[in-house]
Amino acid sequence: MCGEAKKARRKTRKEVAMRKFFAIVFSIVLIGSVVFGAEVKVAYITSQGGLGDLSWNDTGFAGVTKAAQDFGVTVRVIESPDPVGMGEKLLRDAARAGFNIVITMEYSHLTVLPTVAKDFPNTLFVMLNYIIDAPNVASIIFYEHEGSFLAGALAAMVASNTSIPGIRGNKIIGVIGGTKSLGIDKFIVGYQEGAHYIDPEVQVLVAYSESFSDPAKGRELALAMFNAGADVVYQVAGATGMGVIQAAKETGHYAIGVDTDQDYIAPEHVLTSVLKRADIALYTVIKDYVEGRNPGGKVYHMNLKNGGVGLSEMKYTRHIIPAEYIAKIEELTQKILRGEIVVPDITGLSKPYSETNP
User: Fold this and answer.
1) In terms of Cα–Cα distance, which of 100, 103, 95, 94 is closest to 119?
2) Quick one: CA dihedral 116, 119, 125, 128, positive or negative?
3) Could you tell me if 19 and 167 lie in one domain?
4) Cβ contact 304:337 at 8 Å
5) pLDDT value at position 267?
6) Long-range CB contacts for residues 7-16, cutoff 8 Å, separation at least 24
7) What's the gap between Cα 76 and its chain centre?
8) What is the pLDDT of residue 230?
9) Which residue range forms the structural domain that includes residue 283?
10) 117 and 181 assigned to the same domain
11) Mutual orientation of helices 144-159 and 182-198 as an angle, nearest 10°?
């Protein structure tokens, strides 16, 4: 118990240090300037887990930070202990405060944003992972199902090869979602489809942590999957996923990261990461606004074709993964781009590449 307590204290100190780091970065980007004769102010509302999750919120924040540096916009981060329950208040308070652009990273805000947007027609709202049909809302859709398909395919190939360290050949892989919702299940279904495309006999274990900010829960669920025979576990749970990666390192197996390149967190134990480039998407929306191209009413499609989703470079595992597996992933990528493989999108929000205009 004493050792566990020390670990907990170290973990707490690390989290506090991370929060302080982002607070410093935040203070740096509060550098308002005049663009086209008016100061552009951006509110960045984080989702569950907040800044320091090394995942979704941090990825988006990197994009607005770059926009602050390149265009001189003022950025304010808005975090809440209950971003779900306080969603409407957070959005309304930001609009009333005079922010030109209000970005929400919280998926659950899709239910309240249409009403709020109608009440503040001069504010540009930005919704990610869902389409809001309103003239003052920019919607961003990611093709996570495609990136997850490639991750599932890679996991299935690796899970059957006992010559790879940490692989027992049980043909079992896993995935842990933060909550059971369309937004998360979109990843999971894509992952399952990719695995079964390679090998219909591969078993895919599924669990939900019901939290995006509980690494201990992530570790517990991942350890259970590894004990059940899984050798690769994909995390789609924000900061909770840090526990999944920790469990992979402890047991000598593999995790798959999400949203940003998490391979470095446990070198040789994060097989790859499914990239979801919220940074590029948000930077593009702010750039369009600043340069006079109204993003309102527009849907930004972030997919394999434009680099909005994909797999990491696998910098720390390429020496472990057989070259033919890497080649197979590239082959599958090209088949998706050509329309020869159509990965199911359970949200129904994505479109064929011929119909998209990033």
Assistant:
1) 95
2) positive
3) no
4) yes
5) 98
6) 11/215, 15/52
7) 21
8) 98
9) 2-142+278-302
10) no
11) 40
Chain-centre distance for alpha carbon 106 = 12
Shared domain for 159 and 283, answered yes or no, is: no
* Distance between CA atoms of residues 236 and 145, nearest Å: 12
Measured CA to CA, the distance from residue 56 to residue 275 in angstroms comes to 10
* Helix locations, 199-265, DSSP H: 215-227, 241-251
Residue 358 falls inside a structural domain: no
Check: CB of residue 59 under 8 Å from CB of residue 260.
yes
Cβ-count burial of 117 within 10 angstroms (0-12 exposed, 13-18 middle, 19+ buried)? buried
137 and 151 both lie in a single domain: no
Total structural domains in the chain?
2
Q: Determine the Cα angle at 321 with ends 336 and 194, to 5°.
A: 30
C-beta separation of 117 from 94 below 8 A: no
Q: Which two tokens stand for residue 157?
A: 């190939």
Count of CA atoms in the C-beta half-sphere (13 A) of 128: 29
Same domain assignment for residues 72 and 29: yes
Tell me the average confidence (pLDDT) per consecutive run of 10 residues in the chain, 358 residues long: 44 45 41 49 95 94 97 96 96 98 97 98 97 98 98 98 98 97 96 98 98 96 98 97 98 97 98 98 98 97 96 98 98 96 95 70
Q: Check residue 47 and report its DSSP letter.
A: -
Together in a domain, 9 and 117? yes
Q: Which residue has the tokens 């991942």?
A: 222
| Alpha-carbon gap, residue 208 to 177, rounded angstroms | 5
Which of 231, 269, 273 shows the shortest CA–CA distance to 147? 273
DSSP H/E element including 39:
strand 38-39
Do 115 and 290 contact (CB within 8 A), yes or no? Answer: no
pTM score, whole prediction: 0.86
Three-state SS at 185: helix
Q: Do residues 266 and 246 make contact, with C-beta atoms less than 8 angstroms apart?
A: yes
